[in-house]
Amino acid sequence: MDDECQKLLAEKDALIRELQEKVKELESKLRSYEIREVYRGVIPDDVLEEFVKLPPEQMVIEIGKYLKEKGSAGQAEAKRTVTEMQKEIASVEEEVSKAEKDVEETITVITGAAKAKVGVDLNFTQKYDYEGSDVAFLAEDIMRTLGVKEGEYISVKKNGVVNLKAIPYSKEGFIVVPTWAREKIGAKVSDFVEVVKK
């Protein structure tokens, strides 16, 4: 009787172990299906297959590492793309700016007139800003385009005309004229005026 009981208990223990193994196997398969479902399209199937074989704690750690590396690589790629696009935009803006300048110079050469922005300059104010002064600081780029040499006369026009002697000025696109001349032609600082070689 004891032998029979021992035999039955041994069979029962073997059956329990067998069932526990099947439960573990089924849990593993279920976990594998759940993990595949959650990470489908995010982690490649072959990589996911390797992760599923690991113990649960190890699997979570490895998936985290993988996603972090992939995220860093994705961010780096995005930054590279943004940087390349910014360079392209800057290049296009530079080309557009150059083209606009070329067009302005061509128009100036054809018409013999250039547009200049009225500015102010402390040196000019101290030396030349008085009633009857016939001097203007004219941007060197405008002087080149119009073919004006230092000391030659130019006409500055807006709502009137004044004739002034040109002195080279380093600030591109600008002209500085005496206060009386600005008032006579109705121009304020930052207005655009037309400049013609006399």
List keywords for this structure.
198 residues, alpha/beta, six-stranded mixed barrel, 6 strands, rod-shaped
Explain how this protein is built:
The protein is an alpha/beta fold and 198 residues long. Strands 1-5-2-4-3-6 form a 6-stranded mixed β-barrel. The chain starts with a helix and ends with a strand. It contains 6 helices and 6 strands. Helices cover 62% and strands 17% of the residues.
How is the topology of this model organized?
Layout: H1 2-39, H2 45-52, H3 56-111, E1 113-118, H4 122-128, E2 135-139, H5 140-146, E3 153-157, E4 161-169, E5 174-176, H6 179-185, E6 192-197
Parallel strand pairs: 1-5, 2-4
Antiparallel strand pairs: 1-6, 2-5, 3-4, 3-6
Helix pairs in contact: 1-2
Can you summarize this structure?
It is built from six helices and six strands.
* Classification by helices and strands: alpha/beta
Total helical segments? 6
Order of strands across the biggest sheet? 1-5-2-4-3-6
Low-confidence stretches: none
Q: How far is the N terminus from the C terminus?
A: 134 Å
For the sheet with most strands, the description reads:
6 strands, mixed, barrel
Q: Helicity range of the residues?
A: 55-70%
The strand count comes to 6
> Which H/E pattern describes the elements?
HHHEHEHEEEHE
Morphology call = rod-shaped
